Predict the structure.
Amino acid sequence: MTTYPMLLELGTGTALRSGSYTKAAQRAVQNALWHNSISLAEVFGAQKSDMIVDVEIACAQPDAVDLDAVRAEFPYGTISARAVAGGLDIAKPEMPDAAPTIIAHAAIKVSLNITAKGDMS
């Protein structure tokens, strides 16, 4: 069997007041997932638990993201997560000591180990 990327989902999440990069990342994942009902595994005769899910979070402070909390957003599958520099922090000019508004982006790639038609390997 070969691992085939099948699906790419994108989402954006924010933390308006808390200053939590983890909350913004979780909301980006939820944004990507909650707008879809994916029956990908069943179409290929696999279980949902067979899905291989790679999530990449982009935010201004990637080291501040709790990746275990991000992985916990997924109800099934083998989940890997990483955070990279990106996203956007928006300072509050009228409150310079306040946490910025945080915008995080999520890119979720879903793959399956399947045998393609005509693949004898």
Observations:
- The first helix runs from residue 21 to 33.
- The chain has a mean pLDDT of 92.
- The helical segments are 21-33, 40-43, 67-71.
- The first strand starts at residue 2 and ends at 15.
